[in-house]
Amino acid sequence: MGIGCWRQPLLLLIALVLSAKLGHLQRWKGFQEKPMSKKNMNSTLNFFIQSYNNASNDTYSYRVQKLIRSQMQLTTGVEYIVTVKIGRTKCKRNDSGSSSCPLQSKKLRKSLICESLIYTVPWINYFQLWNNSCLEA
Predict the structure, then answer these.
(1) Which of 50, 90, 101, 130 ranks highest by number of CB atoms within 10 Å?
(2) Which CATH class is domain 30-93+101-136?
(3) Residue 129 — φ and ψ, nearest 5°?
(4) How many CA atoms lie within 13 A of 133 on its CB side?
(5) Would you say the C-alpha torsion 132, 117, 94, 88 has a positive or negative sign?
(6) CB 49 within 8 A of CB 64
(7) Residue 77 in contact with residue 119, Cβ under 8 Å?
(8) Residues 109-133: pLDDT tens digits?
(9) Using one digit for the tens of pLDDT, what is the confidence trace for 48-106?
(10) Any signal peptide, and if so, which residues (predicted)?
(11) In whole angstroms, what separates CA 62 from the centre of its chain?
């Protein structure tokens, strides 16, 4: 018997041990209401509003007015379901610094309540918007 005969059973054994270990470590409990850390909250909400503004057809940019609710679930990264109130600002979409823009007043005022599912791997600064829906507030 050569070394090649042991390669497949050994690889299979390694795969079984790894899958058993990972299965033991990954006991996901679903979404739970837990407060986000300030750092994760800021980066996640900044990613969300940037994604929203990039996809929007509105002339003006929006900014987050209030975090209403956040839920998280640990998977291969962190999944957040966030509910936020966003408002139309006086800054055009291409303007930089829209996070500090004042909100519109009177007839151009517009607020939305958005619920979004955001996947993130915070330790490598990776974000992906998986789902988003907004309604007028």
Answers:
(1) 101
(2) alpha beta
(3) -90, 110
(4) 0
(5) positive
(6) yes
(7) yes
(8) 999 999 999 999 988 999 999 999 9
(9) 999 999 999 999 999 999 999 999 998 889 999 999 999 999 999 887 766 688 999 98
(10) 1-19
(11) 17
User: pLDDT tens-digit profile of 28-53?
Assistant: 578 888 777 778 888 999 999 999 99
Closest listed residue to residue 49, CA positions, set 137, 135, 136, 132: 132
Identify the pLDDT of residue 24: 47
Residue 133 three-state SS? strand
Assess contact for 71 and 32: CB atoms under 8 A. yes
* Tokens matching residue 35: 């407060």
Domain definitions of the chain by residue range: 30-93+101-136
As given in the structure block, the two tokens for residue 75 are 């998977």
Residue with tokens 């005022």: 109
For residue 5, what are its two tokens?
Answer: 């005969």
